[in-house]
Amino acid sequence: MNAPAGPSCRDCRYFQPVENIGLDGECRRHAPAALIYQDAPVGVWPRVSTVNWCGEFMRSGETALPQTIADIVRDNIHLCGHGFIGSTCGLCMRASGR
């Protein structure tokens, strides 16, 4: 089989090769799905072929961008203990005498 021309699971950072599963590996992009197998819970990742692809492809070695606005706020904006942007919180300003 020829290598795929564009992005494929084989080159994705979330792809985990697995032997003896009939397909080529598992997609580890999200947490595994919970299934009950023989009365016990187990986690199962989607099985994929190296030639599959999806809209969340990220080449191996690339880093992900923040996924939500909450991530951006958490990483870049200082919030006070009341959940407001630190310099705009009336409670903090009163407590500090400003």
Proportion of helical residues: 10-25%
Report the strand count.
5
Rounded to the nearest angstrom, the distance between the terminal CA atoms is 70 Å
Shape: elongated
**Biggest beta-sheet profile:** 3 strands, antiparallel
Structural class: alpha+beta
Weakly predicted, low-confidence segments: none
Q: What is the average per-residue confidence, as pLDDT, rounded to a whole number?
A: 77
Number of separate structural domains: 2
The ordered H/E elements are EEEEEHH
Notes on the protein architecture:
This protein has 98 residues and is an alpha+beta fold. 14% of the residues lie in helices and 18% in strands. It has 2 domains: 1-64, no CATH class; 65-98, no CATH class. The strands form 2 sheets. The chain has a 3-stranded antiparallel sheet with strand order 1-2-5, with no helix packed on it. The chain is elongated and about 70 Å long. The chain starts with 14 loop residues before the first strand and ends with a helix. The relative contact order is 0.17. The mean pLDDT is 77.
